[in-house]
Amino acid sequence: MLKKVFRYPVLCITFIIFHFCSIAQFHFVPALVWLSNGDTLKGWVNDRGWTKIPGHIRFKQDPHDPESIFYFPANIAGFTVNNKEAFVSYVGNIDSAHAVVRHTSTAIKPRGILDSLFLKPLVNGRVSLFFSIDKRGVMHYFIKAWNRPIEELHFFEFIFYEKGINKGIFESVTMHVIQQNQYKQQLLVSFADCQAIYVHLATSKTHFTRHNLKKWCLEYNQQCVE
């Protein structure tokens, strides 16, 4: 009887050990790490599928090395995986939020915070576009013009509620939305050397979305770069 009593716990423990061992397995693929001093390291990076922007990478110079090195955006200039997917590092101030909800009509710009991110290129060219998402889940877009340093594109939405007439048990509330499209002015500065795209953008309605930002950068690189 004692054997039957302890058989099931042993099976459960075996299953748990097997489960965690399978989770701990890594998939190292060829990679190139760009160091901040301009040097490069050839080696292997644990490929996690890259469905999300990584916060760090696990690196080995030889796939059989027992130890790994962890690199964060603040430590390196960027990296490529399998000579295909690339990420570049950014260290600096980023927007803490794009939307602010208030109970008064006074618009307050969200404060900037210091952070380090890996950025994924969306458009490469004379004007390049990058995307990232921070650990709080806030999306960020960055632009790099050929003659300017990389900078975040800024968009803020201020939402406030105004109480109306009280009708018995009901009270009307009106929602107001004020948008500050600073990113459009940043794009115009980056496109200033191409009159056709500059005028087209200045007179067009834009949206702070990946699709729309990518569209404008592609249009500039295709029509204005010789």
Question: Brief description of this entry?
Answer:
With about 230 residues, the chain is an alpha+beta fold. It has 4 helices and 13 strands.
What's the layout of helices and strands?
Blueprint: H1 2-23, E1 28-35, E2 40-46, E3 57-60, E4 69-71, E5 76-81, E6 85-95, E7 99-102, E8 112-123, E9 127-133, E10 139-145, E11 151-152, E12 156-167, E13 170-180, H2 182-190, H3 195-202, H4 210-224
Parallel strand pairs: 7-12
Antiparallel strand pairs: 1-2, 1-5, 2-3, 3-4, 5-6, 6-8, 8-9, 9-10, 10-11, 12-13
Explain how this protein is built.
This protein has helices at residues 2-23, 182-190, 195-202, 210-224, and strands at 28-35, 40-46, 57-60, 69-71, 76-81, 85-95, 99-102, 112-123, 127-133, 139-145, 151-152, 156-167, 170-180. By secondary structure, the protein is an alpha+beta fold. It is globular.
